[in-house]
Amino acid sequence: MADVVIVDYGAGNLRSVARAVAHAGFEPLVTAEASAIPAARALIVPGVGAAEDTMAHLRQGGLDGPIVDYIASGRPFLGVCMGMQALFELSEEGGRHECLGVLGGRIVRFPFGMTVPHMGWNTVHLERPHPVFEGIAQDDYFYFVHSYHGVPEDHSVVIGSTEYWGVTFPAVVGRDNFIATQFHPEKSGRSGLRLYANFLRLALEHGSIAPAATTAS
Amino acid sequence: MPRKRVRRVLTKRIIPCFDVADGRVVKGVSFVELRDAGDPVELARKYDLAGADELVFLDITASSDARTSVYDMIRRTCDQVFIPFTVGGGVRSVQDIRLMLEAGAEKVSVNTAAIERPALIEEGAKGFGSQCVVVAIDAKRAGEGRWRVYTHGGRRETERDAVEWAREAVERGAGELLVTSMDSDGHQQGYDLKLLRAISDAVDVPVIASGGAGEPSHLYDALTEGGADAVLAASIFHFGTHTIQSIKAYLTERGVPIRPVMPA
């Protein structure tokens, strides 16, 4: 069984995510098999597209339960873009769609009148240090492409935030063993590659991505 | 020491474009003369490191027997380049879009096929999300404040008004528009700012300006007066006239939000 598992639920291009993992020196398993999830030591759920399709694909593939169970087991998890939004309770994209419910809160659209998608490079302001951002500058640039964003119930899950047309939204959320980004680190040049490398090294060498007790506030 | 204040805004994108024919980069001058400027993957790598924000590949051969070279180029680029790239040219069907995305393209641009069968935009947006469907519009002036859409690499005139088509494309699900002025393309005398302004005012998705960049001030004008979110250029970069870094420095000095070029 592979240590690094990338969940393929049929929603587009996972090749760049797999390449970013390979660039960090690890060999990922890209799979749609739910049975690969419990054995993973680092689980990555990427994704683009719409919430409804994402959730439908995850449920049809029997992947939703195993992902939630994996996160609950305390092992390292990275969600990217739709893989972040799916962690919330509910998405308002194209109606109201129940998501995985790992995080309290909703996914809402940017206000009408703004240019959407929010597409391009924007800065991520870290609200607290996190080991996955080791070596990455405060207010560094990452590549975003999305029209909806998270509104968490509990602000303490926000690790980094980004501002677009006066709207500040969570760019990075997480707690203990899981972290998820609204931006695409696999499309964010060297800083994004560093994020993958940090996540994978912490996950596979230390079995934990949690901030050390000494740095926790 | 006062801490340098970081402007927390979405930056404007600088996008080198590669016209690709049979796996080699070429650049048309007003869509006719072609000059060879190298291997696409090598150039892509070079521009990633040089600070390009995104890349666009337009396959201008687009003959069906040469298609496999495009997928191979996309896969090789995806292996080595970690910034987003768009691929277009000769995209006819949802299956074409799927294959390009699976090979590693971030976005796929559609042009002629979308005009001939606009439902392709909806199908692409529904299947893969609006964010990866770019509608490319080749427009030519047809009177004051009016532009006509051309297809088939600029060879065929259509009945479509460019601004109306832009609006319709977005309603159908385009996540971004790549707007090329055929009057300006290849002449390096500046983008068609009126065209850009008319389209960027008409839609709420990002607009990429294309056609006519010869000087850094042209990019500035497109991003300010033209209202574009991104600027695409080819010759200005490929033939060493200007570097990404020098253009970014120019734009930053003038207050345009730009992602700085990171030291190697």
Q: Which features does this protein show?
A:
heterodimer, A: 217 residues, alpha/beta, nine-stranded mixed beta sheet, four-stranded mixed beta sheet, 5 helices, 23% helix, B: alpha/beta, eight-stranded parallel β-barrel
Give a verbal description of the structure.
The complex is a heterodimer of chains A (217) and B (264). With 217 residues, chain A is an alpha/beta fold. Chain A has helices at residues 15-23, 51-60, 64-72, 82-85, 189-206, and strands at residues 4-7, 28-31, 42-45, 77-80, 90-91, 97-98, 105-109, 118-126, 140-146, 148-152, 158-164, 167-175, 178-181. The longest helix of chain A is centred in the last third of the chain and has 18 residues, at 189-206. Chain A is globular. The model of chain A is unreliable at 213-217 (pLDDT under 50). Chain B contains ten helices and twelve strands. Chain B has helices at 40-50, 67-80, 94-103, 112-116, 119-128, 162-171, 193-202, 216-223, 235-238, 244-253, and strands spanning 13-21, 24-29, 33-38, 55-59, 85-88, 107-110, 133-141, 147-151, 156-161, 176-181, 207-210, 230-233. In chain B, helix 7 (193-202) links the parallel strand 10 (176-181) and strand 11 (207-210). The two termini of chain B are 26 Å apart. The chains are: A alpha/beta (217), B alpha/beta (264).
